[in-house]
Design a protein that fits this description.
The chain is about 45% helix and about 15% strand. The longest helix has 24 residues, at about 90-110. It is built from 7 helices and 9 strands, in the order E-E-E-E-E-H-H-E-H-E-H-E-H-E-H-H. The chain has a 4-stranded mixed beta sheet with strand order 6-9-7-8. Strands 4-3-5 form a 3-stranded antiparallel beta sheet, with helices on one face. It starts with 16 loop residues before the first strand and ends with a helix. The model is unreliable at about 1-10 and about 205-215 (pLDDT under 50). With about 240 residues, it is an alpha+beta fold. Helix 4 (about 140-155) packs parallel to helix 7 (about 215-230). It has helices spanning about 60-75, 90-110, 120-125, 140-155, 165-170, 185-200, 215-230, and strands spanning about 15-20, 25-30, 35-40, 40-45, 55, 115, 130-135, 160, 180-185. It binds zinc ion (ZN). The site of zinc ion (ZN) has 6 residues, from loops.
Length: about 240
């Protein structure tokens, strides 16, 4: 087989495939991180829309670090590219951009109705088998998580989420949002890719959100409210 874009391109009826410039393994174009060189500057193309020949890298710190040490230059076949030198470049340039997109997708999901919010609507959508994934706040109470995970197992749905309830509530425009549900669609697909990329890049720092210090009294009340809500999501 001939090496290159044509063999790593789109096969009939399949997603387009690309090769990571660091480890040379093949993956779907959507799951890999895309970079382009503008002038001599390396740009992370978070939306995969910038013109020019793209270079792809796995959403892993190992592959990104290897790319910054020279695989980008080999991939672009030129030595004058300014490679990132800061040790924080992965967090500052990539994780932060992916996080913004992740938040945008959640917000767009809410606006378009692909992300179902509010306990009654989530309960109904779950009963009607309209959901393909649950989105839960990372600081949901243990009781809530246990009940939701049991429900999700019965229905064969994944439980996702990297944001705390404060961030979820802000994006969704609804106070104390702990659980929501995705319906199938383009935004859900994009959300799943972004969540996997952010998890792949977790490590040096928490990928999304900071640990929130909860005030014990109100947290316990919230937990009880939450667990009553999740009780509704049964069928
Ligand atoms: Zn790789």
């Amino acid at each position: 087989m001939i090496e290159g874009v044509s063999t790593a391109g789109q096969k009939d009826g399949q997603e387009p495939m690309r090769r990571c410039v660091s480890c040379r393994s093949e993956d779907s174009k959507a799951r890999l991180l895309r970079f382009v060189v503008v002038g001599s500057t390396l740009c992370f193309d978070a939306r995969q829309r910038l013109p020019g020949r793209g270079m792809q890298v796995c959403a892993s710190r190992i592959c990104l670090e290897r790319a910054a040490k020279g695989a980008f230059q080999r991939g672009a076949q030129r030595s004058d590219i300014e490679l990132p030198t800061s040790s924080d470049w992965i967090d500052e340039s990539i994780v932060s951009a992916l996080r913004r997109l992740y938040e945008e997708v959640i917000s767009s999901g809410r606006i378009s109705g692909q992300l179902v919010v509010g306990s009654e609507a989530v309960t109904q959508a779950a009963k009607d088998n309209e959901l393909v994934a649950y989105l839960v706040a990372v600081d949901a109470s243990q009781g809530t998580m246990e009940k939701l995970e049991a429900n999700a197992r019965r229905k064969g749905l994944p439980v996702k989420g990297l944001l705390d309830r404060q961030a979820m509530s802000r994006l969704i425009g609804r106070e104390n949002t702990v659980i929501s549900g995705w319906k199938a669609g383009r935004l859900h697909d994009r959300f799943m890719v972004l969540e996997a990329q952010l998890r792949g890049l977790a490590g040096a720092s928490a990928p999304v959100g900071e640990e929130r210090q909860r005030e014990t009294d109100s947290a316990e009340t919230d937990d009880r409210k939450e667990e009553q809500e999740v009780d509704l999501i049964q069928s």
